[in-house]
Structures are given as C-alpha cells and as structure tokens.
Design goal:
about 55 residues, mainly alpha, about 60% helix
Length: about 55
C-alpha cells in the first residue's frame, strides 16, 4: 500500500503532461487539415514544399 503514495502522484503528473502536450499540438495546428495530406499524395503534381496561403 505504500507504493500507492508514489504511484498516484506519478500517474497524475503523466496525465497532466499528456494533456499539456495535446493542448500544445492543438495550438500549433496539427489537426487543422487531416484530409489535405491524403489528397495531396493522390494528386498528379509532386511538390516538396508546403502549400502557400
């Protein structure tokens, strides 16, 4: 039972770390265009640069 005193804070810390990393990826726009990469790979044009706005 003494190990729970150590494991509960570690699990809470890892959960919070995962949440912070998820929010960070959301703010960086990792999930903005999930279909774009799939469409670009099927197109006939090859481009190695990201699309310009």
């Amino acid at each position: 039972m003494n190990v729970l005193v150590f494991l509960i804070p570690v699990s809470i810390f890892l959960g919070m770390l995962g949440l912070v990393l998820f929010v960070w990826t959301m703010k960086r726009g990792q999930y903005d265009d999930p279909e774009g990469a799939a469409q670009r790979i099927l197109s006939g044009q090859y481009d190695d640069k990201p699309a310009e706005d």
